[in-house]
């Protein structure tokens, strides 16, 4: 289970809007000075992001919480979002090249580009359809795992110097 800390902004119908701060692993990496990822990360400031999460623990507005998301679900969603469009692009380009070599030999490159673009956009619509279907499934939804208890500091029997009782 992947976990992230956040603050509950609003509660609505069993769902909580939780604000999280995007973090980078570059800060704790020993190779950050010589890494291209660290350079790119420095160009974009850390931003906060709001998520809708199931609130089965009864968190209230203003509570600090731990959000959780199933790792297997995240991996499947990543494959869907990243791999399917690339495969659509490649398949469309190959189809365009094949059609160009059979039908119009002088326009193979143009048909390859058009086929790749068409395959990419068709695959994006497939991704959108499946992501809408998956978003309703329990394992693909973030959930609040626990509320972080607020620390209470109790101070008793302290005498302040330099002040008079009045």
The tally of structural domains comes to 1
**Span from first to last CA?**
56 Å
Shape: elongated
Describe the sheet with the most strands: 5 strands, antiparallel
Share of residues in helices: 40-55%
The average pLDDT score comes to: 81
Strand content: 15-25%
Tally the beta strands. 5
Secondary-structure element order, as H and E?
Answer: EEHEEHHE
Radius of gyration: 26 Å
Strand numbers in spatial order across the main sheet: 3-2-1-4-5
Low-confidence stretches are: none
Keywords: Membrane, Transmembrane, Transmembrane helix
InterPro entries: RseC, SigmaE_reg_RseC_MucC
Transmembrane segments: 79-100, 106-127
Protein name: Sigma-E factor negative regulatory protein RseC
Written overview of the protein:
By secondary structure, the chain is α+β, with helices and mostly antiparallel strands. It has one domain. It has helices at residues 36-43, 71-103, 108-135, and strands at residues 2-12, 15-21, 48-54, 64-69, 143-147. Strands 3-2-1-4-5 form a 5-stranded antiparallel β-sheet. The longest helix has 33 residues, at 71-103. The termini are far apart.
Could you give a quick summary of the protein structure above?
It contains three helices and five strands; from the N terminus they run ββαββααβ.
Write the layout of secondary structure elements.
Layout: E1 2-12, E2 15-21, H1 36-43, E3 48-54, E4 64-69, H2 71-103, H3 108-135, E5 143-147
Keywords: Membrane, Transmembrane, Transmembrane helix
Transmembrane segments: 79-100, 106-127
Protein name: Sigma-E factor negative regulatory protein RseC
């Amino acid at each position: 289970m992947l976990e992230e800390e956040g603050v509950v902004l609003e509660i609505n119908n069993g769902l909580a809007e939780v604000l999280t701060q995007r973090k980078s692993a570059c800060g704790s990496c020993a190779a950050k000075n010589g890494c291209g990822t660290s350079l790119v990360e420095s160009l974009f400031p850390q931003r906060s992001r709001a998520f809708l999460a199931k609130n089965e623990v009864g968190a209230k507005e203003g509570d600090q919480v731990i959000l959780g998301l199933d790792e297997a679900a995240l991996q499947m969603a990543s494959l869907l979002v990243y791999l399917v469009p690339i495969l659509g692009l490649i398949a469309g380009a190959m189809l365009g090249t094949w059609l160009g070599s059979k039908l119009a030999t002088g326009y193979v490159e143009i048909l390859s580009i058009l086929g790749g673009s068409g395959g990419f956009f068709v695959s994006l619509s497939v991704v959108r359809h499946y992501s809408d279907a998956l978003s309703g499934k329990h394992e693909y939804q973030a959930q609040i795992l626990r509320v972080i208890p607020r620390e209470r500091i109790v101070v008793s029997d302290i005498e302040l110097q330099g002040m008079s009782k009045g």
